[in-house]
Amino acid sequence: MTGRIEARLQELGVTLPTPPAPVASYVPFQVVGNLVHVSGQVSVDASGGIKGKLGDAIEVEQGQAAARLCGLNLLAQVRAACGGNLDRVKRVIKLNGFVNVTPDFDPIPQVMNGCSDLMVSVFGDAGKHARSAVGMANLPLNYAVEVDGIFEIE
C-alpha cells in the first residue's frame, strides 16, 4: 500500500532520487530521539546537477531549481532515515540554505524558496519551517546550493 506522502509525491510528479552518498567523512543523517538531522545536500542529480555562482552564470530561477534539487535529496535521506516511510514525518522543523553567490547577489531568500516551497507542497502545513538562507563565497564541488535540515518524526 502506498503511503499518504508517497501518493502526494506521485500526484506532484516527483520521483525521489537514491539518497546521495557522502563525499567526505560524515554520515548523511543522524536520528536523535524523534528528530532526523540531515547533512547538507547539494544541488546534484543524475545529470550532474546545477553548479556555479548565482549572480554570474546562474539566475534566480535556475537557483530555485538547484534549491529544489537539494530538497529532493533531503527527502530521499529522510525517507532512508524513516525506513522508507515518509508518513513518519510529523513536520519539517528547520532548513539551513547556503547559496553560492557573487558578492553583489541579493535575492538569496528567493532562491531558497525552491526548497521551502517543495516541503510545503509535499507535507502541507507540516512542511512550513523555520529557515536560514545565506550567501557563500564557495560551496563544495562548486554546487550552486546546499541545504541541511531537521525533521520531526514519529
Automatic annotation (TrEMBL):
Residues 6-144 form the Endoribonuclease L-PSP/chorismate mutase-like domain. PANTHER family: ENDORIBONUCLEASE L-PSP_CHORISMATE MUTASE-LIKE DOMAIN-CONTAINING PROTEIN, ENDORIBONUCLEASE-RELATED. It comes from Candidatus Viadribacter manganicus. InterPro entries: Endoribo_LPSP/chorism_mut-like (IPR013813), RutC-like_sf (IPR035959). Gene3D superfamilies: RutC-like (3.30.1330.40). CDD domains: YjgF_YER057c_UK114_like_1. This is Endoribonuclease L-PSP/chorismate mutase-like domain-containing protein. Pfam families: YjgF_endoribonc (PF14588).
